[in-house]
From TrEMBL:
CDD domains: Enpp. The chain crosses the membrane at residues 54-75. This is Uncharacterized protein. Keywords: Membrane, Transmembrane, Transmembrane helix. It comes from the Eukaryota. InterPro entries: Alkaline_phosphatase_core_sf, Phosphodiest/P_Trfase.
Length: 499
C-alpha cells in the first residue's frame, strides 16, 4: 500500500510539472505575434520559466526517488521473506536463497548429535561471547525467537516430547512429579519403569529401523522399551556426577568405531544452565559463567569432530527444553489465604508451582472445589489473586493440548510469569528462577540451533513447537518414524533439498 500511494503521487507531480511547462513553451513561441512585453512582464516570464524548470526538475527528481523507493521496497520485501521464510513457502524460494544440501565427505550415512543444554533460555546467547555456539549459529540454522516448549514448560515433559514428537498428554510424562490416579503410584524423575513412558522415543525408532542409537543421558533414555535396552556401550543410566568433559569425549569416541558399530543418533545432555538458573534467576552474572561452560563443551565437541574430519558431515542439533524466569519481589499466591472459602490440604496438590495441579480425593466433589477456589480468587481478599488462573482441566485453552490424560490433575492453576504458589507464608528463600509457565511466554522459549550438511548457513527460521523435532531427525536419518503429534513442516522448511 505504501509504495502504491507513493507511486501515484509522484506520477501526479511529474504530470503537474509538465502541464506547467507546456503553456510557457506556447507563449514563448508565440511571442513574435503578440506585442513586445514590458520589463516587468519579461521578468515575470523569466520567473515563470524558472518556476517551470524547477517544477520540472522537481518532478523528475520525485519520479527517480519514487523508482528507487519502489525498487527498495520490492527487494526488501523479497529478501525479508527469504530471511525468515514461512513454513508454507515453496521449496523453489528456499532453494533459490539457501542452495542444496552438501554431500557427505567422510561418513557413508547421516549422523545426528542431539544436544540438550537444560534451561538454556533463548537470548542467553547475547549475554556473553559464545564463540563455539555462535559458530553453529552463524553457519547453521536458528529458530527465532527460539523454540516453543510444550506445556507445562518443565524438564521431563519437554525432553520426552522432543524425543517422541508427542504432547505430554499422549506420551504420559505430564510433569516432573505426578500421581497416577488408577494405581495411586507416584512418578518422579528417577523412575524408569516403562509403564509410565508411552510413545516411541527417537532412539527406539532408530534401532527399529536397523540403525544404532547412543544416548549419553536424556530423560527416558534409560527406560527399556521395545528393541531399546539401555546398556553399554551405547547407553548409560543417569548419573549427574559424570563430568561434562567425559560425556563429550565418549560421544567423540563413537566416531573412532568401525562404521558398522557407529551410532547414527547420539544424544548428549548437560544439566546447565538450568541448575544455576534455579538458584539465581535468569539475569544474574552466574548465568554467564554457566553458559560459558556449555560453550566450552560445544567447542570441545566441534574440535574433536574437526580432528576426526567429520564435523562437516555430522548434523548437530543444539537445543534446550525450556527457558527460565526470575522469581522474586513477593510474587506469591498463598493457598492459606483461601481458607475462608476452602481449605486445601497439601496432599491435594499433586503439583504446587508454577503449575498448580489439584487432585482432591475421590469422595470430594471436584466442581465444588473449583467453585470455592474461584470465589476465593474473586473475593479481593487473596493476595495476588489476579495472577492465578484456575481451570477445570477440560476447560484449559486448547492450544495447551493439556487435558487428554487421566494423569493430568482435574483442576489446573496457571500462574503469571515469575509468580509462585505456596501453601503458607514462611521464611524460605524467596528469590531464584523457575520455569513451567505458559509456553507462550518468551521467557520460556529455549534455543534451537542446527548445523550440518542439510542446514542452511546463517539462516533463521520461525519458532516452532518442539514436537516437530522428532520428524526432523527421522527425516535427516531417512528412517520411518512412529505416529506422533508433529508434522513435517519443520523438516520441509529447515532441511535443504538434495541435488
Ligand atoms: Zn529443564
Amino acid at each position: 500500500m505504501g509504495h502504491a500511494a507513493l507511486s501515484i503521487s509522484s506520477t501526479g507531480a511529474a504530470e503537474e510539472a509538465q502541464q506547467n511547462l507546456l503553456p510557457l513553451k506556447s507563449s514563448s513561441s508565440s511571442s513574435e505575434i503578440f506585442p513586445a512585453k514590458s520589463e516587468t512582464e519579461q521578468q515575470r516570464d523569466v520567473d515563470m520559466q524558472w518556476r517551470a524548470r524547477f517544477s520540472f526538475a522537481f518532478g523528475v527528481a520525485a519520479t527517480i526517488v519514487a523508482c528507487i523507493a519502489l525498487a527498495f521496497a520490492f527487494f526488501s520485501h523479497r529478501y525479508g521473506n527469504q530471511t525468515i521464510p514461512s513454513f508454507d513457502s515453496d521449496s523453489d524460494s528456499v532453494v533459490g536463497r539457501w542452495g542444496f544440501a552438501r554431500p557427505l565427505k567422510s561418513l557413508n550415512k547421516p549422523a545426528v548429535i542431539l544436544i540438550s543444554t537444560d534451561g538454556f533460555r533463548y537470548g542467553y546467547h547475547w549475554k556473553v561471547p559464545l564463540p563455539n555456539i555462535n559458530r553453529l549459529r552463524f553457519n547453521g540454522t536458528e529458530a527465532v525467537p527460539g523454540m516453543i516448549p510444550v506445556y507445562p514448560s518443565l524438564t521431563f515433559p519437554n525432553h520426552y516430547s522432543i524425543a517422541t514428537g508427542l504432547y505430554p498428554a499422549w506420551h504420559g510424562i505430564i510433569s516432573n512429579v505426578f500421581t497416577d490416579p488408577t494405581s495411586e503410584e507416584k512418578f518422579h524423575p528417577g523412575i524408569i519403569d516403562q509403564k509410565w513412558w508411552l510413545g516411541e522415543p527417537i532412539w527406539e525408532s532408530v534401532v527399529r529401523n536397523g540403525l544404532i542409537a547412543a544416548t549419553f543421558f536424556w530423560p527416558g533414555s534409560d527406560v527399556s522399551k521395545g528393541l531399546w535396552n539401555c546398556s553399554l556401550p551405547y547407553c548409560r543410566h543417569y548419573n549427574q556426577s559424570v563430568p561434562f568433559e567425559d560425556r563429550v569425549d565418549t560421544v567423540l569416541a563413537y566416531f573412532d568405531l568401525p562404521e558398522e558399530q557407529r551410532p547414527s543418533l547420539i544424544t548428549l545432555y548437560f544439566e546447565e544452565p538450568d541448575h544455576t538458573g534455579h538458584q539465581v534467576g535468569a539475569d544474574d552474572p552466574h548465568i554467564s559463567e554457566a553458559i560459558t561452560r556449555i560453550d566450552q563443551m560445544v567447542g570441545r565437541l566441534i574440535d574433536g569432530l574437526d580432528a576426526k574430519n567429520v564435523f562437516d558431515d555430522v548434523s548437530i542439533i543444539l537445543l534446550s527444553d525450556h527457558g527460565m524466569v526470575g522469581t522474586c519481589d513477593k510474587k506469591i499466591i498463598y493457598l492459606e489465604d483461601f481458607e475462608p472459602w476452602i481449605s486445601i490440604p497439601r496432599d491435594w496438590a499433586d503439583e504446587l508451582s508454577p503449575v498448580l495441579g489439584l487432585r482432591p480425593p475421590s469422595d470430594v466433589d471436584v466442581k465444588e472445589v473449583y467453585q470455592n477456589i474461584t470465589e476465593a480468587l474473586n473475593s479481593g481478599k487473596v493476595a495476588n489473586s489476579e495472577f492465578l488462573q484456575v481451570y477445570l482441566k477440560e476447560d484449559l485453552p486448547a492450544r495447551l493440548h493439556y487435558s487428554k490424560s487421566e494423569r493430568i490433575q482435574p483442576i489446573i492453576g496457571m500462574v503469571a510469569e515469575g509468580y509462585k504458589v505456596e501453601m503458607k507464608r514462611s521464611s524460605a528463600k524467596e528469590c531464584g528462577g523457575a520455569h513451567g509457565y505458559d509456553n507462550e511466554f518468551l521467557s520460556m522459549h529455549p534455543i534451537f540451533i542446527a548445523h550440518g550438511p542439510q542446514f542452511g548457513s546463517g539462516r533463521q527460521i520461525p519458532s516452532f513447537t518442539n514436537i516437530e523435532v522428532y520428524n526432523l531427525i527421522a527425516s535427516i536419518l531417512n528412517i520411518e518414524g512412529a505416529a506422533n503429534n508433529g508434522t513435517f513442516s519443520l523438516a520441509n522448511t529447515a532441511l535443504l533439498p538434495s541435488r
